[in-house]
């Protein structure tokens, strides 16, 4: 067992001297792990193990022309990937690899003579000696067809080749645990010991390996491994811009995850993403993501992005930002429920959930368990209501179950409040209208009759119905509100240019039936998915109710995405306040 050095032992000089003993990073990590971690911390690994003939290119060096020129140096894709990995990667990402028709198929070289050849036992022995095969896997790599023939004829044991497959019962929990302790994070564990990692997952040990942590935000901050990509539909002018530290995995997630905005828009036919920028730091990537998002918007594209972007906001491409319990708890106190916490701060929520901290966050309420609506419970619930409409609005789940099972006909106490079609004749409307002294009472107590009176123009004959005044001190009488609205062509313009008059108007929605000159201006699809548009629309209003009535789509988007709580200027109306109503 290696001697353990005291804290601070591995200075930069000692790390450099230790690294000289090894030929590769892997040897360095396996034989001097403490020095290796110190070198990683100091950022010395690239300088310590950089081949003398290796050329490091600056970001943006590999243009399309240079990638194609580089590819012409090689005969197979495998050689291209081995000798110029960066150029090969960009060729694949940009789809240039398919145009490089000069590559020959190197498959036969790997697999050996084609399968028509008849391999005898002596032929296989000759191949084992030629390639110095020690394991069955070595033979398979040297000549796939010879390996297959040897396996079919049970010659492998005769050759004395080592079978690397572990026998049943080999991976016990203790053995998995011992192997896992050699790694500091799950990525390396999975990469170098995939079978042990699989068993660790099966035993449920991964979450118990507390020493395995993904690199933190600060550890990843200066690494150049972030990438900006986009899914673009030029025909429909729709785009999604994203960033990630593992772009290939993220692009696959977009194609498979049904909750992804990209998957929802394209369905099964998700196109290949284009790469916009590579080899970026975290701060650079957040800047460029916001830059390209605004660039596409200025060109008339509709954005599928919902989360905010820019420095200090939004996602940072899959890097865990929540490293301490204190930070997670501080973040959770901004929210009222677990669902809101998960929706507004998914990273912190996942961290809390993985560590079992959610039960300690007593300020986060959990929704009550849904009621199982049996016949008895449905009937018991229905006795709270007089009309079907009240039952439907007050307890929609119970009403749905009652309707599906045909129980509504048995509920004799539930009345049908709505009158049949063409019920409100002129005589019945006038008769109903005489029960009230003003239009407000008429509308609230007999809305069907009132709507018919407005629609047929009979309201003008009901001279006994007087509009309610707006208040003793208010200058915005009903007539003044209507007169003011004539200056505008739409409700949104009315709300923006004359908010006080508009706030008075929305307290009696019937007034808009007389403002036939106000036309609704429909926004393009996806308009309210942009947070900036919603926030801008919200600033036109003083009260949440006014916002909901004046711009329902924007208000609904704000509620759905949790932006409504950020609109601190929107006041909640006082309960039971009758002042300034008409």
Distance between the termini: 87 Å
Please tell me the total number of domains: 9
The beta-strand count equals 4
SS content category: mainly alpha
Q: How would you characterize the largest beta sheet?
A: 4 strands, mixed
Q: Which stretches are low in confidence, meaning pLDDT under 50 for 5 or more residues running?
A: 575-582
Helix content: 40-55%
Strand arrangement across the biggest beta sheet: 3-1-2-4
Number of separate helices? 34
Rg for CA atoms: 35 Å
Q: Provide the residue-averaged pLDDT.
A: 78
Q: Give the DSSP E fraction (strand runs of 2 or more residues).
A: under 5%
- Overall geometry: elongated
Q: How is the topology of this model organized?
A:
Blueprint: H1 12-19, H2 25-31, H3 33-42, H4 45-48, H5 64-71, H6 77-83, H7 85-93, H8 107-111, H9 121-131, H10 136-142, H11 144-152, H12 156-159, H13 173-180, H14 186-192, H15 194-203, H16 217-220, E1 226-233, E2 238-244, H17 247-256, H18 261-266, E3 274-280, H19 282-298, E4 302-303, H20 325-332, H21 338-344, H22 346-354, H23 375-382, H24 388-394, H25 396-404, H26 426-433, H27 439-445, H28 447-456, H29 478-485, H30 491-497, H31 499-505, H32 531-538, H33 544-550, H34 552-561
Parallel strand pairs: 2-4
Antiparallel strand pairs: 1-2, 1-3
Helix pairs in contact: 1-3, 2-3, 5-7, 6-7, 10-11, 13-15, 14-15, 20-22, 21-22, 23-25, 24-25, 26-28, 27-28, 29-31, 30-31, 32-34, 33-34
